[in-house]
Every structure is written in structure tokens, then in C-alpha cells.
Amino acid sequence: MPAPTLRLRGFDIHKQYLDPAAQKALIDALRPVLKAAPLFSPTTRFGKQMSVRMTSAGKYGWYSDARGYRYESHHPNGQPWPAIPDPVLAIWHDVTGHDRTPDCCLINYYGDGARMGMHQDRDEADFTWPVLSVSLGDDGLFRIGNEERGGKTESIWLESGDVVLMGGAARLIHHGVDRIRAGSSRLLPKGGRINLTCRVVD
Ligand code: SIN
Ligand code: MN
């Protein structure tokens, strides 16, 4: 039986939405994407290299450098981003209930020691569309704050197979990943954590 959905600060957390076979199938579907669009380490506009490595699938990919955060239509290697794999789209349609497909599936890879600071996802044109997150591999300590910067926060360990819907009144809530529990999952042959976030950009 699927685990119940938790609601934390307006985010819907579907624990164990994907069973181990579905997680494995998703990794298999991501493999050609990662081959065509290899992970890279973006820098912030302050010139600091991010500890998370990333790439994207879809019409747009998220990108950051000295010019700031934005979506780009091509990978830094000059190629268009690969298509979003069907199993990712199936999760999006099932959990969001929307027929419109997302424009971007950002693929974040957290190796040992990688983290993501508190931020809002606000590079998209229309915040009425939700952002959907899928966690695979090692556990990640996910922190949820407030729409304003600062204030009290709450944290939850996201495990492989968990899906989080960030939408509605919670769409602009600050969130981040404090740390990874290295070795907690055997899904990825080299360890680490993958997080997918699907976004409607235009
Ligand atoms: C993100 O906010 O883009 C990623 C969240 C996560 O890794 O769980
Ligand atoms: Mn985010």
C-alpha cells in the first residue's frame, strides 16, 4: 500500500510514491539523457561554483553563470536538451493533474558533501504552475522555510522514491537541501542523490 501523503508548510510530500522497480526504471530512462547532456557544475553570479552538478531535459534547461540564473534552450555543449523521458512525464501528469507537459526537467546530482542553499524557484513566467520534485538515491535533508527570507524552518529527510509537489500558495516558499546521507541507498551504482524538478517555464 502506498505511504500516505504528508503536508508540510503547503508542500505535498508523497512518501515512497515510486517503488524500487519504478525507481530503477526511472534511472534507466535517465541514463541516455545524462549521456547526451552530461552533468556540469554551474557557478553563481558571484562566481562561486555550486556543489550540486546538474543538467536538464526538455525545451529549456536551468543555467547559472556570471549573468545570473535563467533558462537556456541549449546545453553548454551547444546541443539542445534531450526530451524529458516518458516515465518522468507520467509522474508529472499523475501528481499534478495537469495535461500540459513541463518545459524543463532539471536533474540535480548531489555527491558526498553537496548541498543546496535556501532559495525560491522564481525563474519561471507563471507561478500558478507547480514545481514537482522526484528524489532518487541517497537520502537528502530537505529544509522548508517561508515565502519571505529567513524565519523558522522545518526539515524532512527525502528518500529514494519520494515525490514533492510545490504549488499553490506554497509555490514560492524557500527550500534547500542541507546534506546527503551518503551510502543510504544502493540505487545509483556510484552513490549520491538525484533530484528531478519539473517546471513549466513559459
Ligand atoms: C531544488 O530545489 O531545485 C532541488 C530540491 C531537492 O534537491 O530536493
Ligand atoms: Mn528549488
Query: With helices defined by DSSP (H or I, 4 residues minimum), what is the helix count?
Result: 2
CATH superfamily: Alpha-ketoglutarate-dependent dioxygenase AlkB-like
CATH topology: Jelly Rolls
Q: Give the distinct bound molecules.
A: succinic acid, manganese (II) ion
- Percent strand: 35-45%
Low-pLDDT residue spans: none
Structural class: mainly beta
Question: What is the C-level CATH assignment?
Answer: Mainly Beta
What would your notes on this structure say?
With 202 residues, this protein is mainly beta. It has a single domain, classed as Jelly Rolls (Sandwich), CATH 2.60.120.590. The protein is built from two helices and 13 strands. A seven-stranded antiparallel sheet has the order 1-2-11-8-13-6-3, with helices on one face. It has a four-stranded antiparallel sheet with strand order 7-12-9-10, with no helix packed on it. The longest helix has 17 residues, at 20-36. The chain starts with a strand and ends with a strand.
